[in-house]
Fold each of these.
Amino acid sequence: MNDTRSKGRRSRRRGATGADSSASFAQRPFTKLKQTYQPVAVASEDQLEAIHQASLRVLSETGIRVLLAEARRIMREAGAEVDESTEQVRFDPDLIMEKIATVPSEFTLHARNPEHSVVLGGDNVVFDMMASAPNCSDIDRGRRTGNQEDYRNFLRLAQMHNILHVLGGYPVEPVDVHASIRHLDCIYDYITLTDKAYCVYSLGEDRIADALEMTRIAHGLTMEQLREKTCLFSIINTNSPLQLDIPMMQGVIDLARMKQAVVITPFTLSGAMAPVTIAGALVLQNAEALAGIAFSQMVNTGAPAMYGGFTSNVDMKSGSPAFGTPEYMKAQHVGGQLARKYSIPYRSSNVCAANTIDAQAAFESVFSLWGAINGGANMLMHGAGWLEGGLCCSYEKTILDIDLLQMVAEFLRPLDTSEDELALDAIGEVGPAGHFFGTAHTQARYRDAFYAPVLSDWRNFESWKEAGEPIAIQRANAVWKQRLAAYQAPSLDSAIREELDAFMAKRKAEGGAATDF
Amino acid sequence: MNDTRSKGRRSRRRGATGADSSASFAQRPFTKLKQTYQPVAVASEDQLEAIHQASLRVLSETGIRVLLAEARRIMREAGAEVDESTEQVRFDPDLIMEKIATVPSEFTLHARNPEHSVVLGGDNVVFDMMASAPNCSDIDRGRRTGNQEDYRNFLRLAQMHNILHVLGGYPVEPVDVHASIRHLDCIYDYITLTDKAYCVYSLGEDRIADALEMTRIAHGLTMEQLREKTCLFSIINTNSPLQLDIPMMQGVIDLARMKQAVVITPFTLSGAMAPVTIAGALVLQNAEALAGIAFSQMVNTGAPAMYGGFTSNVDMKSGSPAFGTPEYMKAQHVGGQLARKYSIPYRSSNVCAANTIDAQAAFESVFSLWGAINGGANMLMHGAGWLEGGLCCSYEKTILDIDLLQMVAEFLRPLDTSEDELALDAIGEVGPAGHFFGTAHTQARYRDAFYAPVLSDWRNFESWKEAGEPIAIQRANAVWKQRLAAYQAPSLDSAIREELDAFMAKRKAEGGAATDF
């Protein structure tokens, strides 16, 4: 990134608010995080190969049902065997391997503020705000159906926190906005309330076309130029087991053609839509991911695609999905190993099944983070806010997760063992039975030596009791309100805003997109 | 272990209760856990070498103050340079390396029930019950000073839960028992209320002698035989920085001579008793650990010793110790790397600074577990119960931690990718858009397919709300009461009990141990 150039480009703005509300509280700058340490291998090389081979067998023997005729046509032309009567498509292993070989091992996802662009793949780690909750909550007002006001507030929080690199989708679904124009309003809010990169939904050609046009405007590009610059991504879920539906496949076609990124994510719940064994669920996940990723390359060789892992288990008593379980962690690790085997960027998630922010919410989330980080995830979806297995985005959980993500980022900061950090002089100076508080070595460093947590209460029991025994969720409640109050919109070139406004007016006048899905 | 022999040996018991209350609820059997995956390297080889060399320099240049004259004498005879005026002892790097080379890389810690013996070192992982809290709490009765009733209850819970392999010390200090005889009562309770291996405190020669005698009786050994069988261990804390106190060094002498295990654990709080940099704190930790471990070998070549890592950071605003922080995690990992470099078994901990069982308690604990497991810990002290930076052992936290440890154990169970687990037949049978609930593959496995959590509430929001919105700490409260009520003492040979009782009576008549420490 060229700071001078980016500043120059934005210098012509008029009426921009120009604020940086991320400076309204103490936090680390927006940083490109790296996988500092080697990911952990949960599967041996032989086991990985066994899963890989089994998933290729699934694709060649059973195949996958593809509901979109155009997708089947593209697959057939690429060499797949298509049975039109069952809509099932079978792939030769060589075809799959040849296609996935052209996926870029890393790519840049551009934000309209180039300082917020991120690299996906390689040893990069990117954290996303939570996405797609139908409900939201805070402890003052309780749980409610998603709406535009809360939607916007979550975008504001995502914008303000440097640890959230990307918008992974709508943090909460604003169901008070009519579905025909919801995508327009939501993307408009993405662009005006934040300057980070974002995810759009694959809900048909019209919506994707609108998203591309608005993104083109936001970035000040021609459509030709957008085709050379990945500025958005879309999550492509399979209908496990072994089915690819129409809007998702349409999304792959429309986005891959424009060189925008698709994140193929099978939702393989072990015991329900996937086999009850983790190895079996991974075979299914891998088969579906490979089919979707290979398809993106059939559409446009070299288009950016990611391998999404979302395998978890269900509660066999109730059928409820579980998250942050030992089984989920294992699947996260092996998913990462598979993605690295194919040199494809890997997506995982920060998820839990808890209904409130108690110990369960925290341990399930940290187990998810453990699995994602040691599993080598390049992009962590649902980084902040996720509650209730994804059915609710919580203001307080957003703050808790931001704290957790910041701690993970701190853990990933490489150990410094330079001469001065080894502190031999300080150790010699203090000697036996002394204290380091007063040393010059400590005095020079104490302010920034350690991560300063957002929520942790490190007072002793007596002081904590006297303060009314506050628990983490209460502290989080105070924090989000305080921070949100300091929000200011990022600057936006007024010419861009005018063009966006005109497009919005036109599309709304046309009635937006059809809602017959 | 030879089950037949051990059953034969215990067959002569009379009046034994013979119960196994660990069967009163569903849990995995007592299992020898393994580090299934490669530990994570936080330090590069060069960085590790830099820390190692720096700590050798500390030991040769500044040295360490040793308060016990006999320890200085042993060190001088082994070749160390002793300055009697300052009580400082300096060690040549070659002397340190030569001494630590004789530490066994793994050893068996024997329990009186041989089925509960554990191996420490190598790729073994052992979990201990929490130790040494001055207070305890539950949500019914609140927080209170440690006492014998609670002490015994925690032992009972530790005995009942197969995931807790070892007693790491007194879960809570029974201060209502006079200090002169507390060790007698506590060890008697270890032996009679549990049949697991345990930790004794290094609080002077008399107490160690009593512990050895009681352990000899419990195992049915002669003192000669005990010298060949490691049946207990003691935590040896250094007085950081760079000081070894009298009872701790006496403990090393008395235990190493008897081939009982010492766990040398510097309490190097970065920013307080250790440098404010993690690298510097690790240099100090390593110097102190190496000095203590080398000393154990000067006392008795080949005596079992462990490398204890406890480096954390303090809150630089208040000086309070913090736990489960990113800095703590880094130190845990590097501590493990150092221990493995020396082929010495490694001890870490499950710790937090929270005052109650909220999200903070859970995330700090899981971060600690992450650091311990990926750091390659062989023994996890304070596995269950730890709250308030160690100032309180909580009944509810005990249950939460047991759940967490069980999940970690589940994560460590090797992935199974056998033909049947890959589920190719089931995937083919279900085909596109089907469901796995009803398949034979699922039906044959669903009962034990996944870890069944103790505390997690996986109901949907509506059902959970209707049930009164229970949070994890409330569920934990119900669980410990229910489980504790089912406790039954493990069997104990009545001849052993009589011998123990006689010893107790004699020592109590003698007034126990001096309390002038």
Amino acid sequence: MTTTLTNRQVRLARRPEGAAKRDDWQYTDEPVAQPAEGGVLVKTLSISLDPAMRGWMNEGKSYIAPVEIGAVMRAGGIGRVVASRNPAFAVGDAVYGTLGVQQYALVPQEEIKRSGLVKIDLEAGTIGQWLNVLGMPGMTGYFGLMDVGLPKAGETVVVSGAAGAVGQTVGQLAKIKGCRVVGIAGGAAKCDWVVKELGFDACIDYKAGPSAVREGLKAHFPKGVDIYFDNVGGEILDTVLAKLARGARIIICGAISQYNNTTPVQGPKNYLSLLVNRARMQGIVVFDYADRYPVAIAEMSAYLKDGRMKSREDVVDGIDTFPEALTRLFTGENFGKLVLKISD
Amino acid sequence: MTTTLTNRQVRLARRPEGAAKRDDWQYTDEPVAQPAEGGVLVKTLSISLDPAMRGWMNEGKSYIAPVEIGAVMRAGGIGRVVASRNPAFAVGDAVYGTLGVQQYALVPQEEIKRSGLVKIDLEAGTIGQWLNVLGMPGMTGYFGLMDVGLPKAGETVVVSGAAGAVGQTVGQLAKIKGCRVVGIAGGAAKCDWVVKELGFDACIDYKAGPSAVREGLKAHFPKGVDIYFDNVGGEILDTVLAKLARGARIIICGAISQYNNTTPVQGPKNYLSLLVNRARMQGIVVFDYADRYPVAIAEMSAYLKDGRMKSREDVVDGIDTFPEALTRLFTGENFGKLVLKISD
């Protein structure tokens, strides 16, 4: 019966300059095809909107190939198997994978591994949580904090983008590991939520004034910052660099403040603080930890169940809103993990 | 008899703006005093002139307190004990310590530890070598490369300031550990020496043109750089960042290109290469490894004896030439470890 269905898709029409605009996208409607031997057809339920998507739109070498002009935009998502000619997947299975910004993803056998298609257990977490704490952002936060940050009980941890998907995981996990945690977020509402709901020790509203971050760090952590989980780059990175404790670790996860730049990235001019403080700055890419996702998912789904960890998603409805929904990430309008709902 | 002697000293007259000039220094002549109980009087033979000295002249928090205005300029040096009331030191002993830019250093008992005064064996190396491979620069190179760089045989290593004191140690040590080593130095003479005398695999003359470093790295290490030992910062750091191999380690040892800046330090705008390449940038301060200096000295003096390691010093004669001698470091005029000879 799926043969009569239409698959609406969002394709990259051209490489954006600065922020991606509606004109940078192209909508196509294609008939839904049936899977060949070994393949699977997935109906997309929700997709994840992530800062990294901006990088995928650019030409050039990175940790992953760019999305080609004319191709369906890459996106991780949750779906249901609606047709299967692969014994590993049954009709009705909930799955996670790189489904793309489209209503249906036809995944041929040879693409199953590359698209990371795996069955997921919707008892372990909601669809939103599977795109958040139990998904890529959660895995990024988990392995960045644990493997690169190496937190010890009693240490001081700062996380920027604190109300975002990665930030909320990092801060709550650091609290569970016995650290003192200060978030950095934009606006009083996000800061309140991070402290009152998630249990961070404090949160600095970077929009409160030009010296808010500097003054806040000084007040909360007079002896300096042991671990900084950086999601934003730019001025905030420089400010934290100036407040490092000896032996500090900085996890470079992203630099959302720089992604829409049409000018060169702003390098951290306080990087020599690494020398003075014998500190380390290290980048991570979550895919390197794929073998260990199940361990992290098991640990964090237990925290979700026993209430030690909470999550918040900001759900936008409908594939046609994709361009504007994505923009919210870069303006900081989203509050919680940004999810685009494609169908029920 | 030492009571009739005069001690010529170089003191910091004011905090320099940009490069230190002759007017930033003040000369004083004081009578040489005798040590009190537990103290030692050392006649300075040679002192080490190091890029780090520029930082010590600045106000503000760093890994070590600034030199106060009016104080004798801090410097590590080699001397001979000429009077001792401490059983650990005998007249005639050769010693290393923070002697300062002066002809005689009176080290009271309570200062012996802080000034790092230790007996040295002039059989293990010459005075020049004790300020070079066996001294602070050598220790910096050794522990930076071994503890932070973690070199493995077959890996690619780039070192800037290759003909300088730290650089020559790092490059030769990396060769001994089985790495492929490219130096970066200013001018054909330094590059020739680094390759022909020290056995580096290649050396890039950064003065050869604006794209010399980029083109050179591409030609020598098409698969990227595993370890970069950074003594210079600035453009060269950015260029190497753009050529990292996956899992690369950058040792931040200094940033001589930035020390005389009157404008803000230039941050590495390519720092997001750390993310793409899962790479690490870490600062080191040699004093942290003081407990292990003897191990490194034993290893490297063996290399000097069996000819696997060579050293070159650039010796300038006379305490009165101190201001101009120091300047040579920042113009790159020195060729080899810069040493100021104070007396025979």
